[in-house]
Design goal:
single chain; alpha+beta; Alpha-Beta Plaits; Chitinase A, domain 3; Trigger factor, domain 2; 3 domains; 4-stranded antiparallel β-sheet; 13 helices; 11 strands; elongated
Length: about 425
């Protein structure tokens, strides 16, 4: 072996080794590199391969010497990490003792043993965490027959038989009103507040409170002014809770007759019988509720997980964290417990993913895009190509999916029996979590 190393100093996750690399070995490698250069060099005044070795040494000795030293140092670091089974948190630091190690001249024969200090910063060793210490409540949905019927009715809307009620028709609950509408905030139109020739099913609650009920009893051709307010927990933060006015023109009114609930209707959704369809709706309803609640527990679970993590955090990772948050100079190296906990959580999640072999697959990504397309009523292919052309967007999506996958695995592993709730009570729990 061309090197020896001894542990000189250690504190927390930092280990400092003294390494000695054999001068004979370095000399052998420098000679071999210089010989290769002699064979390939094409220097002015000399034919290819005929430059005297003295000229090659004069020109390239310094560069070749340092290349060889770097290579030998890397091999020494690899040997240490492999033998000690270290996982590095950052790039190793190598300091050459120049007084003891630098050759006096450009003569290979005078290369001495090299002395260097190698500083390694390690990732902490992470013990398994007792997830039963995370105190959360899980819920399951007790699906009633009426919930299933309500959901099937909602799905049936798209397959209802529609008939024009005529030019003097009045809007009633259950009708479809074809409308043009423009929304105003403080007298100004706002982004996303306009619809043209839109089919609105009265009673579907697809628009904010008071919108659909405000059209009941109004006549085809009429223009209606609705003074309303956005809910406090509206998904668009900047308009949540604000008063708004909508000017709505009723262009047409259609009656809807729901289709008969039979096997033929079930076939429209890819099922053989209405019974199969009902069972699938029951299962989907329960899953949707439980998954929505799970997602809303994420911050809570991570908050309760953090105090269970007690390992040291690599210093370099806190500095990486610094780059994302600009501090004034006085706080530059002062890290709050909150920051340290946040980095500690990230390290734990990465380690957890590795131990449980969790990764984001192509099909996870496809499902994510399809769900997004449904949510925004877009063509999935269009959203795909948007992501294909933007590396950063793609990376962000993978990061979100990866964190969610790890979280779901941890959540499922928290041992607690779910409490059965009716849809009404579950809705209340979801509302509380959202707030």
């Amino acid at each position: 072996m061309s090197y020896q190393y001894t542990l000189k100093e250690e504190k927390s996750l930092v280990k400092i080794f003294d390494c000695i690399i054999s001068g004979f070995e370095v000399g052998k490698n420098v000679t071999s590199e210089l010989t290769t250069l002699q064979e390939t060099a094409h220097l002015k005044g000399f034919r290819k391969g005929k430059t005297p070795i003295k000229v090659i040494e004069e020109m390239y000795f310094g560069k070749v010497f340092f290349d060889v030293v770097n290579k030998q140092a890397s091999e020494c670091i690899s040997a240490i990490t492999k033998e000690k089974n270290y996982k590095l948190a950052s790039q190793p630091k190598v300091e050459l003792d120049t007084d003891a190690s630098m050759p006096a001249d450009r003569n290979v024969a005078n290369i001495k043993d090299l002395k260097m200090a190698v500083t390694l910063e390690l990732l902490p060793e992470i013990k398994d965490v007792d997830l039963s210490k995370i105190d959360i409540q899980k819920y399951s949905l007790k699906v009633e027959d009426s919930d299933i019927e309500g959901e099937i009715k909602r799905l049936a809307l798209g397959h209802a038989i529609k008939e024009d009620k005529g030019s003097d028709a009045v809007v009633q609950d259950g009708d479809i009103a074809i409308i043009d509408a423009t929304g105003y905030l403080d007298g100004k139109e706002f982004d996303g507040g306009k619809v043209v020739n839109h089919s609105l099913h009265i009673g579907s609650k697809s628009f904010i409170d008071g919108f659909e009920s405000g059209l009941i009893g109004k006549q085809c051709g009429e223009t209606v002014t609705l003074d309303l307010a956005f809910p406090e927990n509206y998904h668009m933060q900047d308009i949540a809770g604000k008063k708004t006015q909508f000017i709505v023109k009723i262009l047409n009114v259609l009656t809807t007759t729901p289709p008969a609930m039979n096997d033929d209707f079930a076939k429209k959704f890819g099922f053989n019988t209405i019974e199969e369809f009902r069972n699938d709706v029951k299962k989907s309803l329960a899953e949707n509720y439980e998954n929505t609640y799970m997602v809303r527990q994420k911050a809570d679970v991570f908050d309760k997980l953090q105090p269970l993590l007690t390992f040291d955090v690599p210093h370099s990772m806190l500095h990486k964290h610094d780059d994302k948050h600009t501090h004034d100079d006085s706080h530059e190296h002062h890290h709050s417990e909150k920051e340290i906990s946040s980095v500690r959580l990230s390290i734990f999640l990465m380690d957890y993913a590795e131990k449980h072999k969790l990764e984001v697959t192509k099909s996870d990504f496809t499902q994510y895009i399809d769900a997004m397309a449904r949510m925004y009523g877009q063509n999935p292919q269009m959203i795909y190509s948007m992501y294909e052309n933007n590396q950063e967007m793609q990376q962000n999506a993978y990061n979100i999916l990866f964190e969610n996958k790890i979280f779901e695995h941890i959540y499922d592993a928290i041992p607690t029996s779910p409490e059965m709730l009716t849809k009404e009570i579950f809705d209340q729990k979801l509302k509380e979590k959202a707030e």
